[in-house]
Automatic annotation (TrEMBL):
Residues in ABC transporter domain copies: 4-223
Pfam family of the protein (one): ABC_tran
Keyword terms, alphabetized: ATP-binding, Nucleotide-binding, Transport
Database matches in Gene3D superfamilies: P-loop containing nucleotide triphosphate hydrolases
Gene Ontology molecular function, alphabetical: ATP binding
Protein name: NitT/TauT family transport system ATP-binding protein
SUPFAM superfamilies for the chain: P-loop containing nucleoside triphosphate hydrolases (SSF52540)
Organism: Isoptericola halotolerans
Domain of life: Bacteria
């Protein structure tokens, strides 16, 4: 699982504002693609459409053959801000989504501990987010999403809030996590270097509403 078929996808915001248009891409199970391009070219829009947070005005997204019609647990989304609950420990943050899905408390906490270990935070399960570094907080954010076993991981500038050194360390951590879980990955980043480091293919987008043309894919480069 984790096969994405993005077909003629477009998002029109009314008037002549097209955030992006004509995006056609196929992502194989387990493959990692990175989407790069200047600000405003439609990267986040593409990610939000795949996440199901917005509805396309053209085209469609198929995940494992089924059309995406809204958000779903088969797609885990990680943003730049970690979105952790400050009043919950690392373990409880990771367990939260499992609890929401009806997993019993004890089992949810057990799985949460497992996923904390997966991202190298086994020693920090009882810590509260504000006591952790940014990199560690984002690891919690990633563990929380992975605990729900999504078939696709969608990341929008996941390392964007981190200083350069932590960012570099977290790139290695993401490579390691990917090796362990093998989930299909769509990563939006403004860093070409990060894209080349983390992805199997880099999707370059260009244009965007501020240029008066829809954002579009201008190249797909295997790396
Ligand atoms: P990126 O992530 O590449 O910076 P976005 O996907 O955020 O680009 O935005 C693509 C274009 O669509 C931008 O020019 C932006 O101004 C426009 N846009 C994004 N969201 C909206 C919206 N809700 N209404 C109108 N225009 C939008
Ligand atoms: P990261 O790359 O996850 O941001 P840092 O570079 O901030 O990690 O920290 C490197 C290591 O220092 C961590 O893996 C952790 O073992 C330790 N560390 C960082 N913050 C704390 C903390 N608040 N308490 C204990 N150990 C910490």
């Amino acid at each position: 699982t984790g096969h994405l078929a993005i077909d003629g996808l477009g998002k029109h915001y009314g008037g002549d504002t097209f955030a992006m248009r004509d995006v056609t891409l196929e992502v194989s199970p387990g493959e990692a693609i990175a989407v790069v391009g200047a600000s405003g070219c439609g990267k986040s829009t593409l990610l939000r459409l795949v996440a199901g947070f917005e509805t396309p005005t053209e085209g469609r997204v198929l995940l494992d053959g089924r059309p995406v019609t809204g958000p779903g647990p088969d797609r885990g989304v990680v943003f730049q801000d970690y979105g952790l609950f400050p009043w919950l420990s690392v373990r409880e943050n990771i367990a939260y989504g499992l609890r929401e899905r009806g997993v019993h408390r004890r089992e949810a906490l057990r799985q949460a501990t497992e996923h904390a270990e997966l991202v190298g935070l086994g020693r920090f399960v009882d810590a509260y987010p504000h006591t952790l570094s940014g990199g560690m907080q984002q690891r919690v954010g990633i563990a929380r999403v992975l605990a729900l076993h999504p078939s696709v991981l969608l990341m929008d500038e996941p390392l964007g809030a981190l200083d350069a050194l932590t960012r570099r360390q977290m790139q290695d951590e993401l490579v390691a996590i990917r090796r362990r879980v093998g989930t299909t990955l769509v990563l939006v980043t403004h860093s070409i270097e990060e894209a080349v480091y983390l992805a199997d293919r880099v999707v370059v987008m260009a244009g965007g509403a501020s240029h008066g043309v829809p954002g579009q894919v201008s190249a797909v480069v295997p790396v």
